[in-house]
Amino acid sequence: DAGVTQSPTHLIKTRGQHVTLRCSPISGHKSVSWYQQVLGQGPQFIFQYYEKEERGRGNFPDRFSARQFPNYSSELNVNALLLGDSALYLCASSRFGQELKTGNTIYFGEGSWLTVV
Amino acid sequence: AQSVTQLGSHVSVSEGALVLLRCNYSSSVPPYLFWYVQYPNQGLQLLLKYTTGATLVKGINGFEAEFKKSETSFHLTKPSAHMSDAAEYFCAVSGGSNYKLTFGKGTLLTVNP
Asked: Most buried pick, B17, B58, B79, B97, via CB within 10 A?
């Protein structure tokens, strides 16, 4: 079975532009989470979705938004890009979205590298 | 709230030497602890995790970690470093009502020939 797939793998945007990043979870997984990893830092939680509903949100501005589709894939949208949004954006999937409450595993994709110039 | 502190942003060892990467956590609920590895330009791969039970946890590639509640630590070790171990390592915590992982800032491991 395919793992978590993310697209695009790399992209360059200009300040003020908008970007959409995409994630397809592992087959059978209904939950998707997004993390931002700035160079030299650990990943930081942005959103979690389960069954198309937002279950959690990290400390990110309203310029960041996401949604989950009926096939459980997800999009992360970032508006009015700033230089500081340059980062690796990681998507993780899990079957029920509750796994981390019980110490079970979530599975990460390879990430999308966003450079804002 | 939960937090993770990784002591040492960069650790350098010789091939064949002991690897010790330090992780301390803070959690108001029983923690679940994870170590992830990230190779250059790749995503995160789970090395090992502690949930409950045995406090010494063995993972992939010869790594192990010991959960010490009294010291709020979860240090990662490997008896003999290999060149292929060169990567960035992240400690993370979850638990309680948390639906997210909280990561440390990472430790870059360099292995010298």
From this structure: B17
Q: Do B101 and A58 touch (CB under 8 A)?
A: no
CB under 8 Å to A104, separation ≥6 — which residues? A94, B51
In the beta sheet, which residues pair with residue A91?
A34
In what helix (H) or strand (E) does residue A82 lie, and over which residues does it extend?
A: none
B30-84 residue pLDDT tens: 899 999 999 988 889 999 999 988 899 999 999 999 999 999 999 999 999 999 9
pLDDT tens readout for residues A52-89? 999 999 999 999 999 999 999 999 999 999 999 999 99
Across A1-117, where does the E strand assignment appear? 5-7, 10-13, 19-24, 31-37, 44-50, 53-57, 64-68, 74-78, 87-94, 107-108, 112-116
Strands A10-13 and A112-116, by their bridges, are parallel
For A100, the 3-state DSSP assignment is helix
| CA pair distance B44, B47, nearest whole angstrom | 9
Q: Which helix (H) or strand (E) holds B57?
A: strand B56-58
**Which residues face A37 on adjacent strands?**
A88
Contact list, A110 vs chain B (CB under 8 Å): 42-43
pLDDT digits (tens, 9 = 90+) for A9-20: 999 999 999 999
CA B57 to chain A, closest CA, distance in angstroms equals 14
CA distance A6 to chain B (A): 11
> Count of alpha carbons within 13 Å of B74, Cβ hemisphere only?
31
Q: What is the mean pLDDT of chain B?
A: 94
